[in-house]
Amino acid sequence: MSIPQNVLDLLKDPDSLIPAIAQDAKTGEVLMLAYMNRESLTATLTSGRATYWSRSRNELWEKGATSGHTQEIQSIDLDCDGDAILLKVTQVGAACHTGDRTCFHQPIVTRSANSSSTANVSTVKNES
Amino acid sequence: MSIPQNVLDLLKDPDSLIPAIAQDAKTGEVLMLAYMNRESLTATLTSGRATYWSRSRNELWEKGATSGHTQEIQSIDLDCDGDAILLKVTQVGAACHTGDRTCFHQPIVTRSANSSSTANVSTVKNES
In chain B, how many domains are there? Predict the structure, then answer.
């Protein structure tokens, strides 16, 4: 299938590469951020599985095509100015190539739950 | 404050502009995507409020500085390859300039809850 005109009309620039956020449809966890262009969005709409554009390999990248850790699309929303995409997905296995469930596993700031002062925002000391 | 060296070490390129996702810390809703550079990350760590880099105005943009719709930082995580940021925030008011709670309010695909077939992924017909 091709991208319907009403969807193309919502994109700020249908020919540019834009960030796409994958969020677990069930838990709400943000899993990863990758990029999409018209070709990858078309592939995603056609297959129902998240397909990005690999900037390093300069080619289509169906998430999980080699690992089996696919992302089945539940919904896709564009942001207000049509230059970012939110995919709600059913994630099979781990989203991250490290084996972590989410790619966002490097904490740099945490805040204690019982604190209301910005002074208590502190950077995390990494052990490595 | 400046960005601690252990955080700089996690960034793929500390001098580049990278996408930053703001997620509601309480509801898990993805609110918006904007961009951060070293200067805006420093401002965010210092104030405890999300501060982005405006690509259109080419200047620091403290979210809510004019609207009052600030984002108080609860946590910040980097992704596995250090080129995307996830902010969990307490959002005051609406995240979107349109008045919508989230910027991702333009549905292009929805899937019926009782469907397990990718053939049922269908694009949304916009009324406008």
Answer: 1
Q: Return the number of other C-beta atoms located less than 10 Å from residue A12's C-beta.
A: 12
Kindly report the pTM of this predicted structure: 0.90
Task: Give which of A1, A106, A112 to mutate to test B binding, by max B Cβ within 10 Å.
Answer: A106
CA-to-CA distance for B122 and A91, rounded, in angstroms? 19
- Rounded alpha-carbon distances, angstroms, from residue A55 to A20, A59, A75, B13, B42: 13, 7, 24, 16, 27
CATH number for the domain harbouring residue A90: 3.10.20.810
- B80:A98 CB<8 A: yes
**Is residue B117 very low, low, confident or very high in pLDDT (cuts 50, 70, 90)?**
very low
3 state SS of A43: helix
- Phi then psi for B64, rounded to 5 degrees? 85, 5
**Do the domain assignments include residue A99?**
yes
Q: What is the DSSP string of A11-24?
A: SS-TTS-EEEEEEE
Confidence of residue A2 (pLDDT cuts 50, 70, 90): confident
What distance in Å separates residue A6's CA from the closest CA in chain B? Answer: 7
Q: What is the rounded average pLDDT of the residues A25-38?
A: 97
Q: What is the ipTM of this complex?
A: 0.89
Assigned domain for A119 exists: yes
* Domain assignment of residue A82, yes or no: yes
Closest in B75, B98, B111 to A107, CB measured: B75
In-domain check, residue A98: yes
Q: With beta carbons under 8 A apart, name residues in chain A contacting B105.
A: 77, 79-80
Q: Which domain holds residue B31?
A: 5-123
